[in-house]
Write a structure and sequence with these properties.
The chain is built from seven helices and no strands. The protein is elongated, with a radius of gyration of 23 Å. It is mainly α and 180 residues long. Helix 4 packs antiparallel against helix 5 and helix 5 runs antiparallel to helix 6.
């Protein structure tokens, strides 16, 4: 049996410096991906929350007609309206800067689940090309946002997040000898 022409048994092994560079590049690219997910999802939720809150504390008629799941149905409709708007705005802002990123993403996943359950699922699978129309209210876009949020819940906010900065700061102060 002969070796394939594409394999080169005599190829030099990467040096330790090259391996370290590859690991660093991989970590930075992963963290840039998490940053991109956080920024995109955050601006979507913050815009949705801001839009709700700009409308006031009274829920609009279409919102009043919704059938909420048991977990939030006990809240009055106006309180659900304000809670959804404030949740999207505050948790979106936390996600934006990476403060409590996993918890913020989990909270936004809950808000997304409620929105899909009450509004989007019955409207079917429609999305980007109809987003500003009635046809664009389906569950495709919320599902894509949910996938982004799951990545953040499972991976954290990444290196470019306040969570990372706070963890590094705690680690440094924990290893600093006490002042005499």
């Amino acid at each position: 049996m002969t070796s394939s022409p594409t394999s080169n048994v005599n190829a030099p092994e990467p040096t330790g410096a090259l391996r370290q560079l590859a690991r660093n590049l991989d970590a930075h690219l992963r963290d840039l991906g998490l940053l991109a997910l956080r920024l995109w999802a955050a601006q979507e939720f913050m815009l949705a929350g801001w839009t709700k809150l700009q409308g006031g504390t009274q829920a609009p008629a279409w919102f009043r007609a919704l059938d909420f799941p048991a977990l939030v149905a006990w809240l009055p409709v106006d309180a659900n309206w304000v809670a959804a708007g404030a949740g999207e705005l505050v948790l979106g802002a936390a996600l934006l800067v990476g403060l409590g990123a996993r918890l913020a993403a989990a909270g936004l996943l809950f808000i997304t689940w409620v929105a899909v359950h009450t509004v989007h699922f019955d409207l079917g699978w429609s999305g980007w090309n109809q987003i500003e129309t009635e046809a664009g209210l389906g569950f495709k876009v919320p599902l894509m946002l949910a996938v982004m949020l799951v990545a953040i819940v499972t991976q954290g906010g990444g290196q470019y997040a306040l969570d990372r900065w706070r963890a590094e700061r705690r680690r440094r102060t924990a290893h600093t000898p006490p002042m005499p």
